[in-house]
Amino acid sequence: MSALIWFRNDLRVIDNESVYNSTKNHNSVIAYYNFNPKKFEETKWGFKKTERFRAQFLIESVSQLRNELLKLNISLIVDHDSNYFLLNELIKNRKIKDIYLQKEWTQEEILEEKFIESLNEIKFHYNYGQFLFNPNDLNHNINQTPEIFSNFRKNCEKNINVRPILPKPSILDKNNLFNKNYVIPDLKKLGLKKIDHDDRSAFIFLGGTKEGEKRIDDYFWKTNHLSNYKLTRNGLVGKYYSSRLSTWLSNGSLSSKMIYWKVREYEKEIKKNQSTYWLIFELIWRDFFKYISIKHGNKIFHTQGILNKEYKWNQNMKLIQAWCNGKTKHEFINSNMNELNKSGWMSNRGRQNVASYFAKDLKINWIIGAAYFESMLIDYDVHSNYGNWMYVSGVGNDPRDRKFDINWQAERYDPQKKYQKLWSN
Ligand SMILES: Cc1cc2nc3c(=O)[nH]c(=O)nc-3n(C[C@H](O)[C@H](O)[C@H](O)COP(=O)(O)OP(=O)(O)OC[C@H]3O[C@@H](n4cnc5c(N)ncnc54)[C@H](O)[C@@H]3O)c2cc1C
């Protein structure tokens, strides 16, 4: 009997439990991905839910995934339909009973699954492939996840081993392949404008596992920037101040485990120091926000956040537009927003500053800022984005509830105004 892999945020063949288990358990496997038009619609705030930078990256990622699946004799069926008509038809026509997919717990994904479940008799086989520390290996209930990052980190480091990379998946028989070729939509089909590359962007992001692996190779072995990561990670200009691996992680072209084990390899072969540890430390932050989001469910999308804290937020459209368009009174904020708008990228230092300015200086409902990031960021990840926004806005996991002094930050991290001059418009 045929099985189906439903790809969402796990767009890779390597170290993917859905691919590994389905090819181990079934002779016939098909794969499915949907560019659900709802994800590209305009939000109530007047901007798209997914803008062109991430959409283009996604198109490239799915296209590479399709090629990698073909090597296993698995056809990827690509859909562009909010009603999932094709998926239902496939399940019925091919008598599919088993669907393999990465576990998601945020509302949009759960609704998709419930809809398919309501129409078909199927069994979902879930996996926790987006984590570094697998929730099945926890020594406590997820609901007891510590609210303070360092407690969470120490517990994981002490009590959980990162699982090894999965073995290569089996190659199925050629008969498994479909004759029909499904077209991957382009930006125009998704209702988005084409991208004019801005030469000021130091980095060109290309989607797909192979491109992510190339970046690891470059950042780790070719240039040894990993050895200095802790010293450079607060940078703003250039290609190498941080790893930029968030982009491939966000749609699952790379797994967090793949990066972890490459760092360990580098430590054995080249050098082990505070910087190599720090990249893993940051990957644990990524896990932390995933655990927090499972624990608190939809609260991460509520203005009061996981602390249920009421502030007096405003929704001044003029201020919101000025922030989005890089037209505030702070050059440092504007340059970061300009970079985001022209390239889909912003450094971690930039993100902290513009978010703090939005929520703590302008006192605008942080949900709107988070939604704008969701639209624009090439590496948008629901848990990291809403988790960090809550953290910075005083409704999340920051025990000190800090506010950034924007002038001080600009002085400290961009003393010669190199960055501000670069992205002045
Ligand atoms: C307001 C705000 C919104 C953010 N939204 C996102 C988002 O949508 N998607 C996203 O991936 N990250 C988000 N981050 C976290 C962080 O800014 C990015 O992960 C990081 O800048 C990506 O660059 P990098 O891959 O070069 O990171 P590196 O510095 O090289 O770090 C390595 C990896 O560690 C993880 N990481 C690093 N910092 C964080 C962090 N603070 N929280 C969670 N994981 C982290 C990322 O997976 C990253 O790829 C946000 C941060 C803030 C303050």
Characterise this structure.
45% of the residues lie in helices and 6% in strands. By secondary structure, the chain is mainly alpha-helical. The chain has a five-stranded parallel beta sheet with strand order 3-2-1-4-5, with helices on both faces. Strand 2, helix 2 and strand 3 form a beta-alpha-beta unit. Helix 14 packs antiparallel against helix 15. The radius of gyration is 22 Å and the shape is globular. 42% of the residues are buried. The mean pLDDT is 96.
Mind sketching the topology for me?
Blueprint: E1 3-6, H1 17-25, E2 29-34, H2 52-71, E3 76-79, H3 85-93, E4 98-102, H4 107-119, E5 123-127, H5 149-159, H6 209-222, H7 229-232, H8 246-250, H9 256-269, H10 274-296, H11 317-324, H12 331-343, H13 348-361, H14 366-376, H15 382-393, H16 406-413, H17 418-422
Parallel strand pairs: 1-2, 1-4, 2-3, 4-5
Précis, in short:
The protein has helices at residues 17-25, 52-71, 85-93, 107-119, 149-159, 209-222, 229-232, 246-250, 256-269, 274-296, 317-324, 331-343, 348-361, 366-376, 382-393, 406-413, 418-422; strands at 3-6, 29-34, 76-79, 98-102, 123-127. With 425 residues, the protein is mainly α. It has a five-stranded parallel sheet, with helices on both faces.
